Amino acid sequence: MNGSAAHNGNADRRELDKFAELAHRWWDPNSEFKPLHDINPLRLDWIDAACGGLAGKRVIDVGCGGGILAESMAARGARVTGIDLGERALSVARLHLLESGEELALDYRLIAAEDMAAEAAGSFDVVTCMEMLEHVPDPASTVRACAALVRPGGRVFLSTINRNPKAYLFAVVGAEYILDLLPRGTHDYARFLRPAELSRYCRQSGLAVDEIIGMSYNLFDKTYSLGADTSVNYLMRATLPANPGD
């Protein structure tokens, strides 16, 4: 984020502070961020396949946090910019990249999505915004920024949590209070988004929704998988049409 990003209104200081307190544990696969480590191979392979290969693509990861997805996309050969409003998380991301010793095309910036969109509209082949929309006051604004950042014909990848009784039971009660997969208070049920709502935000931003796929957690073998069940966690792929009206 540059200096002006601090004035962006689409951020919740409580959310930023919450993740700041845990930032030093971001790359510990057995920490509160274990679910992100567990699902990362799934979402990485899905993105890689859906965009025809990340290698050589210019990618921006909106809400990159500590860099788990951003770094893995860069390792696949993408030129990645990771942006976030969490200073501590970005510090951890930069430190992990340095300590890895890998020569990756990866840059982290402290800037809001809306400000980045004003600065670099249409600059990216791929835009990712994963596990972030349920943490911002105005998810539609974030989707608009993602649509502005992608070039015509480029892909936008989003993920969030559905809003229904099952999602509340699994994502809040189960994950935070029973299974201890996440710290209590991680999610605010009122900010969950139904697929129809997120699809509408995409269409209003000029994006064409190509795919909606669910992500499920198996209680018995403690693994995640992608499939047809979008009732709790889901991912969405959209394209900015190369020609208006497509």
Walk me through the structure.
With 246 residues, the protein is an alpha/beta fold. It has one domain: Rossmann fold, CATH 3.40.50.150. Helices cover 37% and strands 24% of the residues. It has helices spanning 13-22, 34-50, 68-75, 87-100, 113-119, 139-149, 165-178, 195-204; strands at residues 58-62, 79-84, 106-110, 124-130, 150-161, 208-218, 223-227, 233-239. An eight-stranded mixed sheet has the order 3-2-1-4-5-8-6-7. Helix 3 (68-75) links the parallel strand 1 (58-62) and strand 2 (79-84). The longest helix is centred in the first third of the chain and has 17 residues, at 34-50.
Write out key terms for the chains shown.
8 strands, 24% strand, 37% helix, Rossmann fold, single chain, 8-stranded mixed sheet, 2-polyprenyl-6-hydroxyphenol methylase activity, 246 residues, alpha/beta, 8 helices
Question: How would you classify the quaternary structure?
Answer: single chain
Round the mean pLDDT to the nearest integer and report it: 87
CATH C-level category: Alpha Beta
CATH homology superfamily: Vaccinia Virus protein VP39
Beta-strand content bin: 15-25%
The radius of gyration computed from the alpha-carbon positions, rounded to a whole number of angstroms, is 17 Å
Largest sheet: 8 strands, mixed
Helix-strand string: HHEHEHEHEHEHHEEE
- Percentage of helical residues? 25-40%
Shape: globular
CATH second-level architecture: 3-Layer(aba) Sandwich
The total of helices stands at 8
